[in-house]
Amino acid sequence: MSAVIVSGKDLAVEKRAFIKEKVSELHMEKSIQPCLAVILVGQDPASQSYVRAKQKACEEAGIKSILEEYPSSITQEELLNRITHFNDDASVHGILVQLPLPDHIDELAVIEHISPNKDVDGFHPVNIGRMMIDQKSFLPCTPYGIVEMIKSLDVSISGKHVVVIGRSNIVGKPVGQLLLKEDATVTYCHSRTKDLASITKQADILIAAVGRAKIIGPEYVKDGAIVIDVGVNRLETGKLCGDVDFESVKEKASFITPVPGGVGPMTITMLLHNTLQSAQNQAS
Ligand code: GUN
After folding, report:
1. Class of the 31-115 domain?
2. Which superfamily is assigned to 141-264 in CATH?
3. Is the pTM of this model over 0.95?
4. Annotated catalytic residue: which of 15, 22, 54, 214?
5. Which of 24, 124, 201, 238 is the most exposed place for a label (fewest CB within 10 A)?
């Protein structure tokens, strides 16, 4: 049987409409307009396109966005000074520095310089630490979006075996943590994992965050599994595809996310959610 295709796009439309309503309420009741400051360093086309998509989504939701673009020659000190400026500006509720940064800039130092109260990416060690001990924090947007997508399927996560392929700080590690909080049993796999298929075939929920085009075929998937594809890879033809070989795996899975139109739109939606949350925090 062919899997149900889980449209992150449709869920994102629904959630963004709700966010837009809340943004408008905050504006009318407390005269606060949520505002996201985005810093983009360099000319990477993928980063430019992600930032454009984030700004467009902000605009559509009634969230103000500020974009500052800098050449890759910017020094770390100059970048930290811009972050200080936004940290000190009460009209800015979220600060996002698009990654990756040039090699001469220490990414962690930059992330740590953002006030944890404005870290709408959820990358600051304080927010990661709070997440680990189930305290209120900004959750990283892609893992948060994935959990929201799984919850929208009306299947119980509790007791399910989740296998995460990938251990990045941005996706792999936190998505496992968030699903652990939902009472899943979580296994992490990575580039050094031996006999990957024997582990991934045990997954009720398989999350592929590898970064290699179509590497996960049906031989890695249990019948009826939920398959979440986090990969965004560009084929030589210029077409986007995920880490999962969609056409063959959809014949085996019960639910599968497409690329594009799956996890991606949810990532941006949770960024809007976090920015709204930050503005609401200021108002209360
Ligand atoms: N680069 C790729 N994904 C992200 C993201 O979610 N946030 C930031 N700041 N940079 C990224």
Report:
1. alpha beta
2. NAD(P)-binding Rossmann-like Domain (3.40.50.720)
3. yes
4. 54
5. 238
